[in-house]
């Protein structure tokens, strides 16, 4: 993309990165929306969450890696922090429909950790392991 195109649409690099992180966040949101397991109280929550991660990580890893790079860029670029926080809060809010708020936040943190470990170690995602660990957090 020509530099002129980006500077026309985005006044600063932070504006561009915020837009990119918002778009990347939509990828996981699409996985969540497509499965719909949170609306059914009879759905095994741990299995549903493990399935989300499996579906997300099974796709193009480039997009997943980019999302985490942008997410972690918030450590150095404060403009990204609210967008990163929005994603985590939105997911915790969705999970709070099935569990308490503290557990929902713990599940978000655990899912983040599992995904990040898979990306960093290049160890294949193990849905059974993820499901077992998630069940240990869910009351």
UniProtKB/TrEMBL annotation:
<feature type="domain" description="Tetracyclin repressor-like C-terminal group 31">
    <location>
        <begin position="42"/>
        <end position="138"/>
    </location>
</feature>
<dbReference type="Pfam" id="PF17940">
    <property type="entry name" value="TetR_C_31"/>
</dbReference>
<protein>
    <submittedName>
        <fullName>TetR family transcriptional regulator</fullName>
    </submittedName>
</protein>
<dbReference type="InterPro" id="IPR041583">
    <property type="entry name" value="TetR_C_31"/>
</dbReference>
<dbReference type="InterPro" id="IPR036271">
    <property type="entry name" value="Tet_transcr_reg_TetR-rel_C_sf"/>
</dbReference>
